[in-house]
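Recall the central idea of this unit: under ordinary conditions, the amino acid sequence of a chain determines the structure it adopts. In this exercise we apply that idea directly, starting from the sequence alone.
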Amino acid sequence: MRFLTGGRPTPRRTLADAHLPRFLHRHACTGMPGFWAAEQLSTGHFLGWLELRPLDGDPTSAELGYRLRRDAWGHGYPTEGARALLAMAFTEWGVRRVVATTMTVNAASRRVMEKVGLQYARTFFGDWPEVIAGSEYVEVEYELSRETWLRSSAAIRPPVDP
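Accordingly, the structure predicted from this sequence is:
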């Protein structure tokens, strides 16, 4: 949340009135939710959430995102979750392009995007509702096409026994 709210917790009322309805919404073009809880498999402990939702209502493009608790950082959870969501987007939803954005200074998020195969697409100025540290720098967008994902994931799939 450091790169979204400056690290300030979101008030409970805002969560109930604004965020929960958005988290529970199913998109008409896919019939699927846009958000998934990230939990530690061994304990069921809530780690944060992952997002994959149609971009601007277009079912052929999706936006990937992740927000994790600080104590979950550095364990590979966003990478693992993002890989699962990319597979779902490209194999089950028929998505042709996935994008993700972050602040230029958010090196950890950019590294996750790169590790799952997204490539730098553009730099732009974001419209932030409030000024937080780093927002004076530009935003970056990364993207991955289905064709590129198929080529790269085919190279890492285990061989099939004859």
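The two ends are 48 Å apart (CA to CA).
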